[in-house]
Amino acid sequence: MEFSNTGRLAVHILTEAAKLGASDVHVEPLEQEVRVRIRLDGLLQELCRLPWSYYSPLVTQLKVQSGMDIAEKRVPQDGRWQLAVAERSVDLRLSTLPTINGEKVVVRLLDKQNNLLHVEALGLSAANLRLYKAMYTSPNGLVLLTGPTGSGKTTTLYATLQELQGTGLNLVTLEEPVEYRLAGINQVEVNRKVGLTFARGLRALVRQDPDIIMVGEIRDEETAAMAVQAALTGHLVLSTLHTNSAVGAIARLLDMGVAPYLLAASLRGVLSQRLVRRVCPLCATEYMATALEREYLGLKDERKLYHGTSCQHCRGTGYRGRLAVQELLPMDENMASLISGGAAKAAILQQAAKLGRRSLYDDGAAKVLTGVTTVAELLRNGIVKEEDHA
To answer: Cβ(323)–Cβ(373) under 8 Å?
Structure first.
């Protein structure tokens, strides 16, 4: 990648990254050059390498535009910037980190046009979509989204909020940070420097006559207790937890000190998800499944699957875009009784199966068989049969 004007270097790189659909840009100082990588569909790919003489102008531009102190290079800094790309505005969130070679800069690209989805576009199967809508249209209660960092929980939350806005309800969010600004929704950003934590913010939100509360993440006992209490007193509360499975959310909240009977009374359901890469539609090709793939999918006979071969559209990866693989844990009176009585995980999963629950593996395998993703992608995300995982 060639740049004739170093004064516009940062704009060139960020514009190119936004056009490619990148979620992040990493500017990394090496010993004798600068490496620029972009995160596409969850994986880092090298965009270019620049001579060392480009490093100082590039970092200075990024820090000036995002309101950072250009003289301070010894401590991490954070900043924001807004960039116009192809007649749309892309919000940028920047952070610096001092390394032995200089400051590394990571830019998060928040493109509302590409990243704000509707619930129907989340990749939920017809059965899961029906179950999930029943959860978030409840007049009150607690709805949880779980998964590791980068699994698309925030995207799903925003899609849900968009579905709920305009219903004559008071929607309030508490986030760290606010990633996208949504019209008609009161959004509050956590600010720990001044003491505005999730717990303190949630305490204030419930006095604002809310109908629906979105809490970015339940991280501690106090926030968990207040979220459950709000759900029990007539509010619909949406939030996230860092657990590996939907049923794991129950154990996590119990570990945080939530009483089993209170959790059983407040919980409306849990959605767990992972993001997997989508087979590139322009170079998708049929092939015969390997023996290992047939074993993974539980196939006894020969079967054709799809994978991407490599093209310019997917930058040679065989994948373009991502989709979610989901597991839903629905609730009913029997499930509430099991939770309240401290039932084992196996009993909870057995009841969930009666209510239509299917595992991450089941949902992922179905999407492999329809040709939208691959076994390799499921394995990369640690999605295996539950009996194998035990």
So the answer is: yes
Which is nearest to 279 in space by CA: 306, 303, 305? 306
- CB–CB of 80/93 below 8 Å? yes
**Of 210, 217, 214, 272, residue with least CA distance to 238:** 214
**pLDDT tens, residue by residue, 179-234:** 888 888 999 999 988 999 999 999 999 999 999 999 999 999 999 999 999 999 99
Burial class for 123, CB neighbours closer than 10 Å (0-12, 13-18, 19+): buried
Q: Where are the alpha helices (DSSP H) in 148-288?
A: 153-164, 198-205, 221-232, 246-255, 260-266
Q: How far, in Å, CA of 363 to CA of 326, rounded?
A: 6
Task: Report helix, strand or coil for 343.
Answer: coil
Cα–Cα distance for residue pair 198/151, rounded to 1 Å: 21
Specify the pLDDT at position 189. 92
Cα 125 from Cα 146, distance rounded (Å): 18
CA distance 260 to 344: 13
Give the pairing of strands 304-308 and 284-288. antiparallel
Contact 275, 323 (CB under 8 A): yes
Pair of tokens at residue 166: 């305009």
CA 354 to chain centre: 28
Distance CA 39, CA 322 (A): 12
The proportion of the chain whose per-residue pLDDT surpasses 90, expressed as a percent, equals 81
Peptide bond into 177 cis (omega under 30): yes
18's tokens: 């936004």
